[in-house]
Every structure is written in C-alpha cells, then in structure tokens.
Design brief:
With 317 residues, the chain is an alpha+beta fold. It is built from six helices and eleven strands. Strand 10 and strand 11 form a beta hairpin. Helix 1 packs across helix 3. The longest helix is centred in the C-terminal third of the chain and has 26 residues.
C-alpha cells in the first residue's frame, strides 16, 4: 500500500560516535566562513536527506533540513521523526515545492527551516545540524556524509577542512534528461508498454479497468497531474457532494470533484526534483482507487462509467 508509513529505528537508542563532537566544532568553524549568497549542503550518501545552510550576510544564516516533499517512499520521515524535528526547534514546511518558492513565500520553505540572526552562534547552528543528523536521521558516523558548497553563480567552493567527501556535481544541463521524457519512461516501465507516447494534448492516456487515466505535466515549478473522469451524466445532488467530501477526507493523494454532471478524480505529484518511484507509486494507487470508486458511485448515484466493462490491468503489481 502506498500510504503505509515506513518503519524506522527511531525508537532504538543509539550511542553517538566520538567523532561527532569534533565535527560540531569543525562545522561551526566552516559556517563562520560562509559569505552572503554562499551555500553549504551536507547530505547523507546515496539519499536525498540533508541539512543545508545559506549565508545571508547581515541577516545571519538560514538552515534547512529536507521534508518529505523531496523524499521517496523508502526515505520518508515518519511521524516520530517529524515530531522530533519540531521539538529540536525546526519550523515546519509552509507549503509544497510549488507553493513555498522564494517568490511566493519568501519567509517560508518547503523544507524544515530555521533562521539564525546576527550575531550568529555558529556552535548552536552546528549542534542543531548534528543533532538532526544523529538523533533524527540516524546517521551513525560523519563518514556517511558528503558535502557540496557553491555560490549564487553555482561556482563550486572547496572546503577540505570539513573532512567530508565532496558530492558529485549535478549533471550539466545538456546531459539532463528532459522532464517529459523522464515521466514517459517512468509510465512505460510502470505499465510495461514501451510504445506509450504523449498525445496531441500533451497527455499520456492509459486504461485501467473501467477508467481512462490521463497524466501530464503542469505548472512552474512543474507537477505531474493525474486525472480521470469517473462518471458522466450524473445528477449533482447534495448527497453526492457529501459523499465526495467524505472521500476527500478519507483518501490520500486523490481529490474528487463535480463538474458539469461528471465526477472527476485528480492527484498532483511534485516533479522538481523528479522521483520516478514516487510518481509510479502515486499513479498505481490512483488507478486502483479510481477503478473501484467509479463503480461504487455509479451504484449509489447512477450515471455511466467511462468503460462499461473492466479490462484486465496491465500494471505490474
């Protein structure tokens, strides 16, 4: 099930390595050298979990740690970890990646964040970061970390005193696979249909049981938009509206709504960064829910499903 919460070892007490206190002092010293518009990202190797810092000159320094918006299912923070982040002093995300942008939400963030005004006590910043890495993200030793540092022009900054391995730089723009092609490849793999393509409207259309599901990219920053029309020719009654409201309260990811005598379902998945396994999981969950809900709603409120008979699923289970 997509909506299961991954289990972690958060309840198991761990001894902190003797290497961490010296690393706190080293990190504090490095943070003290960050100039305005310089950035340091310390990440857990082979994951998208990180703590990062932005030098803000006379405004101090901002620290952030990743939220579930940027983590795939295997890396997601559980309820215990999220509560621990709040208890440690992190402010919760103020919106998703498409909402809490610097332009739309300059004081917020899609990550957990904290501001440290001048005069900055860099030891406090470093201690918060190490506490987050060790006690919440459960990193056993500094050797599990890597770093990337750069300025506003994306010029790399080398920090050998950190004692960490530099992370690989992001691929050059000309080497990056275009986002539409990443989406198409993910759905081809999920559906086992190598000939799947975008249609003239920019949608990828697939059939699952009695529903037709369409997937496209929308917005800036982009999101993967999943949509299906579940019923047509249905009477818009208060009972139907109430039923859809109940479904919206009880169902993760999907949003159900009425429009011109038709019942629709939709879901959106952040596409920046694009995490194929996340898109695939939400898409599969969407298809399974939509294919069952359309028949239930038809039995209760009438109308017609997109397909009268269910087709066998092509999805890999």
């Amino acid at each position: 099930m997509v909506n299961e919460t991954p289990q972690t070892a958060a309840a198991v007490p761990l001894r902190r390595s003797a290497a961490w206190p010296p690393f706190v002092q080293t990190l504090a010293s490095v943070l003290g050298t960050l100039e305005e518009d310089q950035f340091l990202v310390i990440s857990v190797k082979r994951t998208n979990r990180f703590v990062q810092f932005a030098g803000q000159g006379g405004l101090g320094i901002r620290a952030e740690t990743t939220s579930n918006s940027y983590l795939n299912r295997s890396q997601c923070l559980d309820a215990r970890q999220i509560a621990a982040l709040g208890a440690a002093g992190w402010h919760g995300p103020t919106g998703g990646p498409g909402e809490s942008t610097p332009e739309r939400d300059p004081d917020g963030s899609p990550n957990f964040y904290r501001e440290f005004p001048v005069p900055v006590r860099f030891e406090d910043v470093a201690e918060l970061a190490v506490h987050t890495l060790t006690e919440i993200l459960r990193v056993p030793y500094p050797g599990f970390l890597e770093y990337e540092a750069f300025d506003a022009e994306e010029r790399a900054i080398v920090l050998p005193s950190l004692g960490l391995k530099p992370a690989m730089r992001s691929p050059r723009t000309e080497d990056v696979i275009p986002l539409p092609q990443q989406l198409l490849a993910t759905l081809r793999e999920t559906m086992s249909i190598p000939e799947l393509e975008f249609d003239q409207d920019g949608d990828i259309g697939v059939r699952f049981g009695s529903v037709a599901v369409f997937v496209c990219l929308i917005g800036n920053p982009p999101s993967v938009h999943i949509h299906a029309r579940l019923l047509v020719d249905v009477e818009e009654t208060s009972e139907l509206v109430s039923r859809l409201n109940d479904l919206n309260a009880d169902t993760r990811f999907l949003h159900f709504f009425l429009d011109n005598g038709a019942v629709h379902a939709a879901a959106d998945v952040p596409a920046e960064p694009f995490i194929g396994v996340h898109v695939s999981s939400v898409f599969l969950y969407f298809c399974q829910i939509a294919d069952g809900i359309d028949s239930l709603l038809q039995a209760e409120f009438g109308g017609s499903t997109t397909f009268l008979e269910s087709a066998p699923s092509l999805l890999k289970h």
